[in-house]
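Aim 2 progress update. The chain analyzed this quarter is reproduced below.
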Amino acid sequence: MASSSSEADWILLKCNHPEIIAVHSNDDDLIISTAEIHTWNLPSLHSRRFITIKAHRNRLIESSTYFRGLLCGSFSDSSFDCISIQWNLQFLLNLFKFIYGYGVEITSDTFLSFFEGALYFGVDMLLLDCKTWLTEVTLVKEFPSLQLNSLIDIWKFCTEQANDSFPKLCTSYLAKNFMWAVTYIAFCDIPYDLLLCCLKHPQLTVHSEKHLTDGLLLWLGGNIERITRDDCIEILQQIRFSLLPLWFATGKRSCRDFSKFFDESIQNIFSLVALPSTRSINIFGNSDTSHLRIRLTEYTKQLDLSGCPQIKLGALLLSLLPSSYDRDLSLTKTIRSSMNYGALSSDKLQIQRALPVLLTFGAVYEVDISNCPMLCLEDAIECFSRSFPSLRTLKAAYHLHFETKNLYHLVKKCPLLLDIDLTVDISPVVSTQSTIISSHRAVLSHRPSVSYAAIPSAASLSFMSTCLPSNIAKLTLEGRIDVTDHDLQILSKVCVALSYINLKGCTSVSDGGIAVVILECVNLHSIVVCETSFGQNSIRALCSFLPGCDRLTSAQTTGNNSMSLAHKLQKLHMGGCMGVSEKCLTDLMSQTQKLSSLCLRGTHLVDSSLYSFSGSSLEMLDITCTKVSAAALAYVVDKNPGLTCLRARDCKNLSIPEYRADIGVLYSQKDMYIKLGRSCQFEDIAVGWGFSYISLDALKFALRKLRRITVGLGGSLGEHGLKLLAVTCPLLDSVTIYFQVLWDSIIADVIILLRHLQELSLCYCFGEISFSRFQFSMPNLRKLRLERVVQLMTNNDLVILTENCPSLTELSLLGCVLLDSESQEIISSGWPGLISIHLEDCGKVTANGVADLFDCCALEDLLLRHNGQGIQKNFVLHAASKMPMLRKVSLDLCDAKDGDYDIPEVVDGNSLSSVKIARCKPHRCPLNLPKLKAQKTPLHKETLVIVWDSKSTIRTLVKERI
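Predicted structure tokens:
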């Protein structure tokens, strides 16, 4: 009982933390008072088990319903001076600070403790603070601040407490940040009910259905033993399978438990592409088009539609229009028609009428529509300009019919764009590497038209270039042979902020055209011009003074010109540019001090050019197929310790010892590798001539982080070298080996030790190689090349390979002479998701035609040569109709059933960018022996290459077999 009236204002609270073992002998004697709360040292008190707190009775009664009921009610404790409380001491101390007016910090880690305690003790103000904090943190649009494991705990607790508002906040938060959640290990700990509510939430935000599917398959894999079959189906039914990339859906058909869903996905995709399918599907169901709507919310930042041939203008409009427009029957009918048959119906006016009311998604800054052959890029640009006002990055690779002049329209419509990627396949014919017999260009009579916006006329381009400078900083035009000097001239005026340009494989532009871009775009720091006419004029432009008008004629090509563009360059890739002389290359190297990435593959690079290079920031260096010596390479490496990528294949001079007058000794390749081993940490290396076990041993400390290695002609690792490689480089994910001596035991060691291997290429190797060692599981392998290494491979071996390497997307087999037509079915059923197949000299694979390979319907690259004379005359057209993503086809007339192939003049309605038809002639034995039948073997004669661009069809006849 209270001893006096003054003492009745105070009460002692004996606090006991039941989960902590006391570490102090006098733990029970510690008494602290709320009158001195400002002096409490909380960290020192958290580890105690017992603490007695002297507090104002009335303050507790006013602030807490728990103490109000305990101290004011009819309980026997009401009149006591001392009561006991068992609770988390850390929370109790913070609770008293909060009651006495001191703020507490609610975080992702402390929220649940505060909320649970506030509920128990009935502290309404703390409950309000918890609710405010959770509401605010779940509304944040930037990087999530609520950790996933905390989110799960909060949802579980609040669900058990029958709190309706907090679980809804958790569900909304998870839906908006689904892509973030998938990256956490705790993702698989999400309860089924929470995940299902999240998937049905209207604010579910993902980059694409592919990313959503990957996340759900990951969750199902971690919970398969804890949920029912019906639960699995319920989860998967939330995916919009009609919007999956074709290559992704075909690859997932091998998921035995869920293959039915992906089979239906492929059927739906083909229904939308308007290609023949094995059974009829009503893709629109009963008027519900929700499964055809691309997921877009106010929180969407990235939209990835790449690899979806079913995506057309109708799908975009359907996704960008308000849902109320579903009731506009005439508009809905028009959109459905466009989605079913590939072109808008005649009633374009209705769709044009809908464009002004498209929804706006202000957070979208990146869109990827690469490899969407059915989507008219010009029309897509019109939609993007209206719905994505903050668009900064547009990836639109492999849109063959997009003419360069439309780029000006794109810049005009999306003025905030910083990065544009318009890559297409590089033409197989490179003039510097091919012997051209004849070439013919036929202008296309029919070109895709722009539906809703007129492209500026040539007369207005100069006005646009002066009045509409763009923000474009990065422009990729790789492979676009339709780009001309005139296009570059206009682009250089429009893209005044350009800092990165990729013209790789743009064979129609001249050296002078590239020079104009260099002179006009003074902010350039990255230039990729491999396989172009980049030459003397471009070098002069790089080395000229930046200020002034006539910089090309007053170029300073000697000395260290810090005012030149070359001095600012960070990336220069000019592989295959044979128009640059040794002297010009030396002058250029003397002015490129800031380069971090340099590719000089296949150029006139000699030692003097490397010795003139004074930079110290190189991270990547490619000197493949040049005349550089070991001493010159060591000189550069010594000054660039940050080098992580070195490609030096086909450099014969690296293996030749050289006398160094400056140090008075004979400098060898071994000395170079010792220097590399001491100063570098490589992630990617390609070597050849002179590389051996000794070289690898010298490099072993520099290869601990190695991820990719290529050993080419002239290298000799041997058994010990390959074993050392597997032991030294556990992170390797790509191994490419040419002309090495291999045995089964070596292959076994490599496969067993390299568990991260994603790419394996064994080409033209020697030794006793059977197929027995490929019976080890390689679940991560994506690319496999076996060229002239397993000649005795059988169909049974191929079956074993499909079982051990289930994730392959690219397969190349050369010289497997025992394979036959049944191999097609084994390949297509074992790897339905293949995007590249190369089969050459593989027995009789095509002797009975090509039918089963069509089941690999996502193929983009197909090579069939010398596999049996059974390929139909209409194969190219038939394959393009069966495989909507097919861009590259390579055949041989030896395999043509009727001696020839039909080649389309135009490629409207498919993705073809190039077709190569090789021709052979019989080679007779020169010995004229009457009793010996002359042996006929095919000998290559010429290759016909047909290439399509946005303007024309180009037929080129070359001597090389390409």
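The longest strand covers residues 937-948. The radius of gyration is 35 Å. These observations will guide the mutagenesis experiments scheduled for the next reporting period.
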